[in-house]
Structure formats: C-alpha cells, structure tokens
Write a structure and sequence with these properties.
Thiamine-binding protein domain-containing protein, 4-stranded antiparallel sheet, alpha+beta, UPF0045_domain, globular, Alpha-Beta Plaits
C-alpha cells in the first residue's frame, strides 16, 4: 500500500517547516520507501507498518504543538511492491514515448 499524508501543526503561526521536518524525520528513519514533496509525504509498505509510521509522525508534531491536522490518502493494493516508483514511471512512459 502507498499512503500519501500531510501533517501540520495548528496554532503555531505560518512557519511550520521545523514541525513538518520532525514528521518527515520519523518517516525517513522508518526504512520504508518514501518521498516528500511540497504537499505530501508518501510512504510504501504493509498496512500496519505504514500506519505505525504515520501515527509516530503525527505524535512527533503533536509533541510540540497542541493541535495537529492530518490529511491522508491511501492506495490499498495487496501484492504490489515498488508502486511508489512504478506508478511514476508509467506516467513518464506516456509523456516521453
């Protein structure tokens, strides 16, 4: 499964990069395949391990901010691995025939 999520502190002002970095650090240290862009962090793995990482990423932000916003989107497709890369490669093939 692939989960794309965004976690942000609320009530801490406009500059949230430091808080978001705490969440991304948890994801990167998990060892699971992941990518971070301007809007979301995507992570790939089995349900329980991915959701555990998301929970810990939220907790990392929550530790410094009393209120947290979480947006999550999941692609649940058993048996598929390397979807994080292969989905992008498929689109690129159509863009660059």
């Amino acid at each position: 499964m692939i989960v794309a999520f965004s976690v942000s502190p609320l009530g801490v002002g406009e500059d949230v990069g430091e808080y978001v970095a705490d969440a991304v650090r948890v994801v990167r240290e998990s060892g699971l395949p992941n990518r971070t862009d301007a809007m979301f962090t995507s992570i790939e793995g089995e349900w329980d391990e991915v959701m555990d990482v998301v929970k810990r990423a939220v907790a990392a932000v929550e530790a410094r901010a009393g209120r947290v916003s979480l947006v999550l989107k999941a692609d649940i497709r058993p048996g598929v691995t390397d979807g994080l890369t292969s989905k992008v490669e498929t689109v690129e093939r159509y863009l660059n025939p």
